[in-house]
Amino acid sequence: MITHPNKVAIVTGASGGIGAAVAERLAKDGFTVVVNYAGNAASAEAVVARIEAAGGRAVSAQADISNAAAVARMFDLAETAFGGVDVLINNAGIMNLAAISDSTDDLFDRHIAVNLKGTFNTLREAARRLRDGGRIVNFSSSVTGLLQPTYGVYAATKAAVEAMTSILAKELRGRNITVNAIAPGPTATRLFLDGKPQEVIDRLSKLAPLERLGQPQDIADAVAFLAGPDGAWINGQTLRANGGII
Length: 246
Hints:
- 47% of the residues lie in helices and 13% in strands.
- By secondary structure, it is an alpha/beta fold.
- Helix 1 links the parallel strand 1 and strand 2.
- It is globular, with a radius of gyration of 17 Å.
């Protein structure tokens, strides 16, 4: 069902996993989608091809979100191609785990650059350029509540994203733009599954009362709710999409 004709959504980190599922769901809902990627052009083009094969509109856009100039160029591309931007989905991020005592400067700096400054870069651009009535959905993580060992640096960047989410919602008063965050729990993506023994995956699958891992589509459905008309009264919130794990 086409519910958002002529509306344009940028989805960062959309070449695979949750980002690709979000891009395809928003396209199904009628958004024209800008499929952002950092390095994997072939995967991004595959997402665009799937969207177009299903009757949607999409274009790929390379940008390292930690680079403010690259983010500005991505918004320029969307405005030139489609006339403007209505929705920003801040999905791009990295996760490398280590105890705080073992975390290197490089690990810390990369998480800050991508997860925090990258989100800041896109939020700043969206705050200046999003059309009135738009939507912003950031990505946090349920680790901000679970607070497990080895997640210190990653969880800190996501807690910061939650703070910016609530503050930007207030700063955009008068423009009818909502700003929310999604905080997934364990989700069955290649990023999550790679390197984990089957017994660890099975144990994580049982932690939530619903006794399964989240699927990328589960997260995409929650994002679509916040980006669509039914989410219009939700603002400044972090929605934990995690099957009840916390």
